[in-house]
Amino acid sequence: MKHRDERAKAIARHGSIAAAVEAGALERFQDISLSEAIVLGLLNQGVKKYVGIFGHGTTDIAEALRVYEEAGLVKTWNVRHETAAAHAVTALKILTGETAAVITSIGPGAMHAFAGSLCAASNGAGVYHIYGDETTHDEGFNMQQIPRDEQYQFLKLAGLMGGAYSLQEPHSIFTALRRGAIHTGRAGFAGPFFLLAPMNAQPAIIESCNLLEFPGAFRAVAPSCSDSSVYERASELAAGARRVTIKIGQGARGCGPELVELAGLLDAAIVGGPSATGIVPYTELRYMTVGGSKGSICGNYAMNEADLVVVVGARAVCQWDCSGTAWKKAAGIINFNIDPQHAGHYNRTLPILGDAKANLRAWIDHLKGKGVRRADGSSDWAGAIFKKRAEWEAFKKKRYKNPTLYDEAWQSEVLTQPAAIKAVCEWADALGAVKLFDAGDVQANGFQIVEDVREGQTFTDTGASYMGFAVSAVFAAALSERPFYPVAFSGDGSFMMNPQILIDAVQHGVRGCIVLFDNRRMAAISSLQGAQYAREYKTADSVEVDYTEMAGSVRGVLGIHGGRSIDALRGALEMARGHDGLSVVHVPVYGGGDELGGMGVFGDWNVGNWCERVQKEHHRIGL
Q1: How distant, in Å, are the alpha carbons of 89, 114, 157, 605 from that of 177?
Q2: Which one is the CATH code of 4-210: 3.20.20.140, 3.40.630.30, 3.40.50.970, 1.50.10.10?
Q3: Where do the structural domains in the chain lie, given as residue ranges?
Q4: Which of 79, 362, 410, 477 is 20 to 30 A from 376, comparing alpha carbons?
Q5: pLDDT digits (tens, 9 = 90+) for 88-106
Q6: How many CA atoms lie within 13 Å of 366's alpha carbon, on the beta-carbon side?
Q7: How does strand 512-518 pair with strand 434-437?
Q8: How confident is the model at residue 2 (pLDDT cuts 50, 70, 90)?
Q9: pLDDT for 474-506, tens place per residue?
């Protein structure tokens, strides 16, 4: 067969490239362009969805995608900003596990998408990025390339963020795709893989291309640790401890039952990272909620007082362990992780490498075999952590019972973020919606407020803390085969980073809700400045924006004012629920210094004028 559309139709009829070849509908060796090889190769890995913006750097790949979309094999969603495209495919991978691709042109478009790839890299999301690139003949500067007299500028850039391959030679597509499959599908912390396609290489013909040479998807199975001496040593450490805390990250997903059982055997507290909500149900008595530089009273207490720490599936990100100062009394660490670098991050560590669920189960069985039984909760440690959890609950309820404060910017009583976020969380959870938190003050308050009882209820990008992520992530609902209702929790600053979702959502039929908490300032930084220097500087504005009118100006989007009371907000949310499309609920919120206006800060962080003290404490602890 010579024609692209005939190949696409044959594959569509038979369900796969291999099946079409086996049936005789396709000849095994064909002359195809590099552009078509990219589409075919990714299709063979199950990558069927593309999000982005075409430009002069990707016209040939666009034509290949057009033909294969007409055959029903792939689909492309054209959006209005490349960073938003990057966030959408990242959210799709995180929320559903499906791998999709960002596609864009050379130059500024690729730079925008590359900036957004930070979110995938920081959260371990294996996705593809396909960029046009400068021509291989080097006949002179190509418009929009990085203007330097050097080769492979984008390859160098992309290689710092994830895996990358420049398709200078069309026949290298097979190696490029194999490396991409491994990078995006590996167990543990994956990330973005960049395919750079020079503009003149895209239409180049691969003669007698072997259609069965395209690699399939890579499905890694994490190994488990079978060394019984490791579990014996872990049990010895636990037997000598009196105050055990289990700290979990995203790598602990799927391990909820094991974590609860282990905590009972060790008489331990469980503390989550900001992105680990729902792994252990909020209702679990030993769950001390979130810990870290924006942690809770009980979470940080359990970290500070622990004499033995069990880390499960986490990287020691600065805010996660208060820049290394949270484990003030820890004599040892037991670290479950698939990555040796993360498993061995702390001194005085017993690393247990491999699949967290399997290894936790092996240790639990070992403990039971030694006669260890579930603690009854009567120890001094159990009593102390239960008391701190009760203190935290009272702290939260006090804020919910005082839902409004007078705000100078609004010149009226408005809702506080704790009260407003709590109301939206309750509404979203009742719907079975997916809660997506944007960066900033909304995020910091949010992960202290959520009370998830299962995984998948909430996602917050605490890796890159990327402003505009949540509103862009709403678009993942249009990409997913599994329907879900997304609710983005966004501040006014984050929303304005990616407001084009208003248009893209209508264009592609997104049904969801953005709740816009508007305090007319970068409150997370304002509060940090106030805490450090007793002054705020250039983090607020005097411009009042009617976001209800702004949203409603896009036909198909419903803009709703959220009001200045909890009842009014609940009414607005119900209106949003009834809209068959995207809704934006604008909620003016308090942005001042009253302690009831936020959830507070109970941990340290190596920033600003705190650095000297925090660094000194870090080295004193010596972990």
Answers
A1: 18, 19, 19, 41
A2: 3.40.50.970
A3: 4-210, 228-390, 402-608
A4: 362
A5: 999 999 999 999 999 999 9
A6: 21
A7: unpaired
A8: low
A9: 999 999 999 999 999 999 999 999 999 999 999
